[in-house]
Amino acid sequence: MAHGHKSDEKIVYVGDSRVRAKSSRLPQPDFSAYPGKSEVFIPNFLLKEWMVAVVVLVGILCLVMSEAAPLGYPADPTNTQFIPMPDWYFLFLYQLLKYPYTSDKFVVFGTVIVPAIMFGGLMVAPFLDTGKERRFYKRPITSALMMLTLIACTYLTVVSWTHYEHELKDKNIIPEHIKREQEMHAGKGDGGGGAAKKPAAAASIVAADDPAAELYKKATCVSCHGGDLKGMPSSGIPALRGVGDKHSQDEIMNIIKKGQGNMAAQYDDNIKKGLTDADITKLAEWLAKQKKE
Ligand code: HEC
After folding, report:
1. Which of 75, 259, 276, 279 has the highest count of CB atoms within 10 angstroms of its CB?
2. CA of 210 to the centre of ligand 1 (A)
3. For residue 47, what are the contacts with CB-CB under 8 A and spacing of at least 6?
4. Contact 180, 253 (CB under 8 A)
5. How many A from CA of 250 to the centre of ligand 1?
6. Residues with beta carbon inside 6 Å of ligand 1?
7. Ligand 1, atom 2: nearest CA belongs to which residue?
8. d(Cα 293, Cα 290) in Å, to the nearest integer?
9. Residue 227 and residue 240: Cα distance in Å, rounded?
10. What count of Cα atoms within 13 Å lies in the side-chain half-sphere of residue 15?
């Protein structure tokens, strides 16, 4: 039959190019379809990546150099006032180990099993949670687990931190990094330009070549107050530099003989060590000379 002009024939489309066929897979694009828009990985792409990396590294370098790292004091094993604490992001694990059912007999539970469940759970999550749904309120189990974990971590961190602060207050401890910072500010307040690096206690040893200085090194004093007379302020042992401003020779002699506060009497021990009474008197005399100018 020929096609007439006034045909009432129905037009039937075979397929519709305006509607995409549904397919579960996206068509793999062929890069030859984008001339000039693709590039080779080596060396072009890699070179670009490296350049970005260098800029980032230089940025970090500038930050590192402009702000000195907040170092604490050198480690001091005799310092009983130091409370070891993990970094803040591990506080929750640290706190977890304080509970009775995760410590002592059950310590394996706290150190291995609970963390294994947590991290193992994260690892298998992509295989268990295979639903297509992306909205969190349509995935009650996954979302609930996540919320629960977040709440638990926050709670444990806060509890651990408050406990730490209470302990500091109870024992009257100022943490080292804060002490260090205070010293730095005190040093700056003195007006010295580069004083930030020097500790504030600036008294020097008077008459360091006096024979009594050798006696001091033989005496018991050195084991606590240190060869440099700086003591260990962080452990409550005062410096003996500048002690002459505080105590006279007689008073120092008295402290050696009778002790003071946390320092036991030292006289007998030093006689046992081979010092004579005259030596100890000389020592006290020398210490009384330790004054700031
Ligand atoms: C076992 C550690 C120890 C030894 C050893 C020791 N001291 Fe002390 N000394 C201390 C402590 C701790 C204090 C702080 C006491 C206090 O007031 O609570 C102190 C305080 C002092 C003070 C007073 C300082 C001040 O600022 O009030 C003097 C002086 C002193 N010692 C001298 C000596 C002499 C001299 C010797 C050696 C013969 C000596 N000490 C040995 C631990 C020691």
Report:
1. 279
2. 20
3. none
4. no
5. 14
6. 219-221, 223-225, 236-238, 240, 243, 246-247, 252, 255-256, 260-263, 266, 270, 287
7. 224
8. 9
9. 10
10. 4
